[in-house]
Design brief:
Layout lengths: L2 H22 L4 H21 L4 H25 L11
Helix pairs in contact: 1-2, 1-3
């Protein structure tokens, strides 16, 4: 296990999850979508900014993808939407 790649993946995941958390506080759908897309791009760019070998960068991308899938599954299981809440902005 490459700990540098895992650290980069954790950093990218933190950026994405912070962006998605911030987007959940926004009421307008357009701004919410823009914040989510921007956080995904920023999290992905965070993986590419650091000067590491190709193998480490490839491992970081794979770890990042696996962590994001795990986080999305966990959020669907543990964080249910409140009933009666409208998504209309």
């Amino acid at each position: 296990m490459d700990f540098i790649a895992l650290g980069l993946a954790a950093l990218g995941t933190f950026i994405v999850l912070a962006g998605f958390y911030r987007a959940s506080k926004v009421t307008k759908k357009l701004w919410k979508s823009l914040i989510q897309v921007f956080s995904l791009l920023l999290g992905f760019i965070a993986l590419a900014v650091f000067p590491v070998s190709v193998e480490t960068a490839s491992s970081a991308g794979a770890y990042w993808f696996i962590i994001l899938i795990g986080c999305s599954v966990a959020s669907k299981v543990f964080f249910k939407k409140k009933e009666g809440v409208s998504e209309i902005a």
